[in-house]
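Researcher: Next entry in the queue.
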Amino acid sequence: MKEQIISFLKLTILTVGGTVAIMIMLGIVSVPALADSKSLYKMAWGSTLPKDIASGSLWGRTVGNKINKHQIQIVNAEDGYPVKSGTQSIRFEIREGDCSHDGNGWSDCKGDRYRSELTSTSKGFKHKFFAWSIYLPDDFKSVDPVLLSTAQIHQYKSNGMPKTFAHNMSFHLNNGGYWAVRYLRAYPVENDPYSGYYKKNTHLIDIKDMLGKWTDIVLEFRSSANKDGIVKVWVNGELKYDYTGQTSDGGNNYFKFGLYQSHVSRINNTPPMPWIDGTRKKKSDPYPTQVVYYDDVRTHGKSFEQVTQPY
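Model: Structure for this entry, 311 residues:
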């Protein structure tokens, strides 16, 4: 009787497995992108990331009706990639020409931008905690004077544009440092989006102290049009920025992270700034390829402790 049951189970597994395989080949059913590929170039809007890497939100590509496979990838420690905890991290890469469009009229290509970035698709927030660990390889390349954002708190638009703010907070890798950038007002609709900004840059850590290691960031952000807004930033457990005051129009916000380069034509049209090693880019030099890794991305937490506890 036992042998008959085992034979029946084997036959069932073979039959069902074969049927599923045939259905996949015929296109009757499909395998989710995250299951059959490390690349997230076909990631659906509102997808989950492995809990090993991120929690607290659903995700989608910020601007990317068409991106390249190398731009956003889930990678594994067993393959030699840097991982902060667990077995996986997420890798972002930008090469020259890595731009796309959103299908609704916005084009990074026309806007002088390159981007490999994920955005939270979860319900907007007003007061939350966020945490992430970022890793810069030893051979990380600067793109100065191109503006490089690695994370943003962005306000949802109202009637096409926010009243006084676009993105409220950004984290930049420029001028040899990692900066918390708080935007103080936004731009007229008809002008270049960046020309009207007033912002406060706060140095958090030198890039040279981030190379080849993980840097842990915690952010508390409270959206407010009044004096009770909050921005606090911790770097490797140390409070580096503490601000209270207006931070937005008071509306809901969302979180983005990855690599986002703005004004990429500056690379050859503006006097170049020194690289991390002190040398300067020549116009004949190829456009630098940038790679960063993220892990332990914890979003929409109610407290510092919630976003820093092990997954």
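Model: Residues 8-37, 186-197 have pLDDT under 50 and may be disordered.
Researcher: Noted, moving on.
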